Amino acid sequence: MTSSATATTRTALSVNVNKVALVRNTRHLGIPSVTRAAQLCLEAGAQGITVHPRPDERHIRASDVSELQELLKQWPQAEYNIEGNPFHNLMDFIRAQRPHQATFVPDGEDQFTSDHGWNFPQDAERLAPLIAECKALGVRVSLFMDPIPAQMAAAKAVGADRVELYTEPYAAAWGTPAQAQQLESYRAAAQAALDVGLGINAGHDLNLDNLAAFVAQVPGLQEVSIGHALIADALERGYAGAVQAYQETIAAGMRSKTAQTA
Ligand SMILES: CC(=O)[C@@H](O)[C@H](O)COP(=O)(O)O
Ligand SMILES: NCC(=O)COP(=O)(O)O
């Protein structure tokens, strides 16, 4: 059951523009523009921009990362979230750009897409100094995590400010008999994170169908980072139309959450 305190947590939308870069990279023409996409999403009300500059630069390139930092200077209310593996190329971007948030993701260099979170206690010792470095730079640290309540205390102990709950298993269960059980696992993991003082982010395969129920059930959800489905929706609706649809969906989830605590 969501408490009244967490029921009022506003869920920010951070648009991941990886897939705009993926299409751009298929020609040497510079279109579709990644910075233009981010500008239009911010103008439409997105609260942040997320990128995941993978080592192979299959989509987001180092030049995108710095150009988006310049763009975001015009949007002081918006947040910049840079994701990646801190043992690969992420720390160079964090040191250079000092974004609002660094999201540590344990991806391999040639991984198809992100598909798991960190493991504790195995990963704690090597993560701790890099988390400390980010925080010394004034960068919030979010750890990409599977929805395992027992892992949350260790994530806090290693210095994380937030966890990002990896939501692909929830998305895959959407519309199946396993949906409710999956959603409950995220609710429990989020509550365990809140109980030890962690903030809650979420992302991966969230979309217009599965988002409202997630927002309604997961306590203290501060940010969802959404890319693949939102950019696909933007191909039909335009960036502004897609952002508006996601913001309306988040708002519907918030209304449902608030009603539960009334
Ligand atoms: C960490 C995560 O779930 C996503 O942010 C990730 O950026 C997806 O990467 P691709 O866009 O390369 O699939
Ligand atoms: N951290 C999740 C993210 O940034 C976007 O994931 P997806 O919506 O592209 O699956």
Give structural attributes.
TIM Barrel, alpha/beta, binds the ligand NCC(=O)COP(=O)(O)O, 47% helix, binds 1-deoxy-D-xylulose-5-phosphate
Overview of this protein structure:
This protein is an alpha/beta fold and 262 residues long. It has a single domain (4-261), classed as Alpha-Beta Barrel (TIM Barrel). 47% of the residues lie in helices and 16% in strands. It is built from 11 helices and 8 strands. The chain has helices spanning 4-7, 18-24, 34-43, 62-72, 90-97, 124-136, 152-157, 168-173, 179-195, 211-217, 228-261, and strands spanning 12-16, 48-51, 79-84, 101-104, 140-145, 162-166, 199-203, 221-226. It has an 8-stranded parallel β-barrel, surrounded by 6 helices. β3, α5 (90-97) and β4 (101-104) form a beta-alpha-beta unit. It is globular, with a radius of gyration of 17 Å. The termini are close together. Residues 16, 18, 52, 54, 83, 105, 113-114, 144, 203-204, 225, 227 line the site of 1-deoxy-D-xylulose-5-phosphate (DXP).
Q: What layout of secondary structure does this protein have?
A:
Elements lengths: L3 H4 L4 E5 L1 H7 L9 H10 L4 E4 L10 H11 L6 E6 L5 H8 L3 E4 L19 H13 L3 E6 L6 H6 L4 E5 L1 H6 L5 H17 L3 E5 L7 H7 L3 E6 L1 H34 L1
Parallel strand pairs: 1-2, 1-8, 2-3, 3-4, 4-5, 5-6, 6-7, 7-8
Helix pairs in contact: 3-4, 3-11, 10-11
The structure holds 1-deoxy-D-xylulose-5-phosphate and the ligand NCC(=O)COP(=O)(O)O.
